[in-house]
Structure formats: structure tokens, C-alpha cells
Target: LacI family transcriptional regulator
Amino acid sequence: MPADPSSPHPPSIKDVARRANASTTTVSRVLSQPDAVRPDLRQRVQQAIAELGYRPNLAARRLRQQRASLIGLIVSDIRNPFFTDISRAVEDMAYRHGLRLILCNSDEDPAKEQSYLELMADEQASGVILSPTPELTRRFRADQHPFPVVLVDRAPDDTPTDLVLLDNAHAARRLTEHLLDQGCRRIALLAGSRSSTGRERQAGYEAALRERGLAPQVLPLRPTADEGQAAAAPLLATDPAERPDALLATNGLLLLGAWKAIRAAGLTMPTDIALAGFDNNDWTTLPEPAVTVLAQPTADIGRSAAELLLQRMAEPARPPRRIVLEGTLMVRGSSARQV
Amino acid sequence: MPADPSSPHPPSIKDVARRANASTTTVSRVLSQPDAVRPDLRQRVQQAIAELGYRPNLAARRLRQQRASLIGLIVSDIRNPFFTDISRAVEDMAYRHGLRLILCNSDEDPAKEQSYLELMADEQASGVILSPTPELTRRFRADQHPFPVVLVDRAPDDTPTDLVLLDNAHAARRLTEHLLDQGCRRIALLAGSRSSTGRERQAGYEAALRERGLAPQVLPLRPTADEGQAAAAPLLATDPAERPDALLATNGLLLLGAWKAIRAAGLTMPTDIALAGFDNNDWTTLPEPAVTVLAQPTADIGRSAAELLLQRMAEPARPPRRIVLEGTLMVRGSSARQV
DNA sequence: TTGAAAGCGATACCAC
DNA sequence: GTGGTATCGCTTTCAA
Model:
């Protein structure tokens, strides 16, 4: 990667043209559609590019083309391994298609989310993959943005949009039925967040219980470990014949809180109480017994979102598509009751 | 934030100038140095900007200025909470100074790291904060990049560079002396990575032991949990009179591996064996007893790095500065021996 | 197949 | 204090 150290400024397309004894138009063509240039000329240009260490000025290109070959990924919590895994998959796809990826962390803050969406607009991004805050899901409209948007993990109320998510209702139902099969009868749900995702998980849980004639017990909470622990603790302090014989958490943080409450109460899993929840986070294999979870297909989700975005970029008028994926139930000691 | 829906293209500075009955020069000045424009004119322009929902075209601005008000943060592992915390601090500073932040994850892969550095060059970034891969630390030279670089967490061999890191030797010494104070005499070190950080931590450990006339026992490892566990397991299987009475891990992943090995061996902490290590990761408070760690001042590190970068951007010729910060020893049950 | 020239939208210089 | 104009580096007509 040589660079001419005598020249104070980086080489421009003009320098390349001069050196290759060609026009800037030709140089530009060699870069974008090499087959349209005769081999010998093309080679001269390519050599000049290599010799000068020329790199196209992206700002100039964008100014001219009115768009950047750049996509954004705005996640609601970068520390959540769920999103880290997704970002890896998206990055792969983007790289393979010669698109740059900008990673942004909205931190569940609608203001930050808004500011990042404006950033992407200012940068003339070609597209955005977004896990919206619950607030945004309520007022999201795809046509409000100057670029295609693919939503991930959370669905807006009804607007048709390109979307990738887990079959949340079914996943919650599978977890619930697993607990029922283990003999649990008083399953309490730690329900975190009013997002579509949260509501669907709750619906799946309630449906499974109703089918067996059992009453749901739902604790609506903010999705933090502390809140989960605080809510679970009093439940566990009640009479063993009355208290829940299983806790089900709708996300990883609440699951952690529930686990801590169970430990603090000195109860044994799964005999005193069973535990299960969403997201196959690393910590879930640490405790003894390990915690039963429903693992989301994060790589699939990321890849699907990237594909959806590329398709829409290629064909803006296409009707929106919704991709629903299944998770994997990972049964571990916290719920696997000995027969 | 109104936008004229009748105009097919976003408003440019010309549209604003026309509407405010001013020149584009004046509009530009209102944006960059408002005080240089007379109040009444300024207000007219600002109103026109608001009415049109004008946003400056960043590509045009960059093309003209030959630099973007944008900084990059390239971390070696986005899943490591250490870096997530740092990124939050950097983001705050950047936001407060009107700089955009691009977050990149090199994943400890020198090729990806290189590609992101090229990205930042292509984007004409004003500066970059970087936690270099060990490979890069060996050949890093600040003047090889077209923007100022501040390194974080890992130091190159000798090149003078703006740099923020933990006082690793002292931190390792504190952990070691703590273990010694608890009565441990055979402290084995799980040493991860050949980076400067790793080497300094090892040096601090060795110095502390030598001062008390004890022999170091170092296991050089790749920094993964699996490797840590695999290396610790055979150590723990030996005769209780011979085996280590403490394990010290130089990073969070090795610490986790060591903890798993201890659990698998059925040993009790801290009586059978004590455990301590670096990085106050969430999981360390999960086990019973919780794990003693040296917490890094992540927010401080991020803030210091951002400040250093801003200073260098303002004064490129300034001699490089190196900021060394102290960590916090958090003594928990895994090492706190009852007297 | 190739090249000359216009123009993307902003800023910087230089007159006034 | 204000405005005209050249210019940043590239792509895109359009004509040869």
C-alpha cells in the first residue's frame, strides 16, 4: 500500500488520470464498471492506482451520488449479547456486499435513537436496521425516513414494515408447556416491557396455562435484574403450598433477577421451585443447576435482516415482508425435575 | 421539524439563502460563527432554516473542509463490558463537542482492525480511539495515520503515543499482596496474552512474590474461558499440600475459566483455594462466594481518552501524553479468608 | 470506447 | 458585515 510521501495531499482521481495518461472519466469507469474499458487502458489505470495508493474520496462520491454505500445498525442495548450476535451477522453480510456498517447504541433512550436516525439521514445512509424502543414502535412509519428501514426484535402496532423477529408467542408457549410437563402448576410470569415482544410472550404463556385450566399470574415489570429480583422476593417468601412452583422470565435480565431472588431465599432448583426464561446468556450456565432458556437464533435474525434490507434497497416498491423465526429450547437443571 | 413535502429534494443552502434574502455565505456563517452576523439578518436566516427543515449536507461540507467532524472508536471486543463502558464515556464527550462517533468492533482480528482504520481514513475522521490488537501494538506508529490516534488499554512497545491505561503492574501487585495477606503462599497466575498489559500484570505479580521470597508459578495462556479452565483443572487435581492455594487471573475470561475449574473440582473458596482476578464483570457477583476482582475505572479511561484526543486535535504538535489510572480492589468471598 | 465539461452543496477567499 | 465566486473530488451526461 504505497503512498507518495512527497505529495502533501492524498492523490485524487486527477493524479491517477494524469499518470495513466487517461481521463478522469475513464478512471472512474475502471472503478465502477471495469468491463466497459479496454483491457490495456484498464491495466494502465489500475497500475497508476496501485502506484499512487489512490483511494476514492468518499465525500465527493457521496455528494455526487446523493447517497452513501453505508448502512446503519441501531440497537437498543449493545451490552445485550443478543444484539452483539446480530451485529456480527449483519456486519458479515454488509462486508460481503461492499457496504460499510455503522453501529449505534440507543441504550433504550428514544432521544438517542432519534439522534442516530438523524445521523443516518445526514450521512445519506442507504439503509438502516433498527431494534426500536417501545416508544418508537408506537409511532413508527417506514415512509418517514429517507432510507429503507428493517426492524428487528420488536414490531410496531400495525404499520406494514420489513421485519424480523422471533415467534414470541410460540416460544413462550413452549417454555410454559415445558414447565407444565415437569409438573409445575403455579407458574408466575415476570413480564418485562410493554413492547410487542413482551406482550406476545405474555399471550403465549397465558394461552398455554388456560388450555390446562390453570390461572396465569403476571407481574408487569421494567426489564432490569434489580426489578426482577425485587418482584420475585416477596413471592418466594410465602407459604410453600401457595407460592409459585415455577418462575418464567420474559427476558435475560429479569431471569437473572429471578435467579438471584431464588438464591437469596435459599430455595433449591428445581425441587423447591423451577426457573426458566428467554435468552441464552453466558451466565445461565454458571449456576448449579444451570438455567433453562429459550435461545434465540441470533445469527439467523441478523442475516435475515440484512437480506431483507438488501432486497428492499434493490427494489424499493416491493411490499413489506415479515420474517418469523423459531428459537431453541435448552432444557437445563433449573427446570428438569427428576421423575 | 417541518419539511417541505412539495420539494422533491432536500433543501440546500441555496434554498435557505433565497428564502432569507441573503447570500449562501451568510447562511454558512450563521451556522459556523453566528456572532459574525448582525442579529436581524441572523434571525431571518435561522427562521428560514427552521421553516425549510434545512440540514447541512455533510458530504459537501466534508469535501470542502477535507475532514469530517467525526471520530472513531475501534475496540477489540464489543462484548467485553470493559469496552462497552468506555464507549459510553467516549460517546458522552463526543456528543458534548458536536462530534459524531462511529463504533467499530475489531474482534481481536488484525485484518478487521486494519479495515476499520482504512474506513476511518476514507471517511476523513478527525481522530480515532483504539484498543489495538497485540499485533498492531508491535508495529504501531502514530504518524502512519492521517488522523490523531489515542490508544487505550494496551501500549505499543516504545513509540511515544497518546495513551490511557491502567497501572497494570501496580494493580497486579495489589491483587497478589491481598492474596498473600490472606495467608496464601502458592499463588498460580493464569496469564493471558502477550500484550503489554498482560506482561505488566505478570511483572507486578512476580515482583510481589519475590519480595516475600516466594516462587512465581505462571501459566501462559490464550485469553479464553475454555483455556483458563483447561489449564487450571490439572493444577487443582494434585496433592492438596502441593497444589496452589490461590489462583490469580489476568483477565475476566481466564477468571471465569478458573472459577469453573474450581467448581468442577469440588473445591471450596476461599478455604481450599482462593480466587481473584481482573475486571469487575457482572458474573463475578453471581457465584457464592462472589469473586474478588480489581475493577478498572472504565468511565475514567473513556473520558481521559476522549479528552486526550480532543487536545491533540486542537494542538497536533503537542508531545504525546500517557495517562495511567488506578483501579479499585473489590474484596469478596472468594479470597476473604476467615481469620 | 473515450473524453470534455457540468454540477452535486458547502466553505473560504477576497472584494466591497 | 456581507456577498460573489472559485473550489473540494467525483460521477454523469453528452458528443466525438
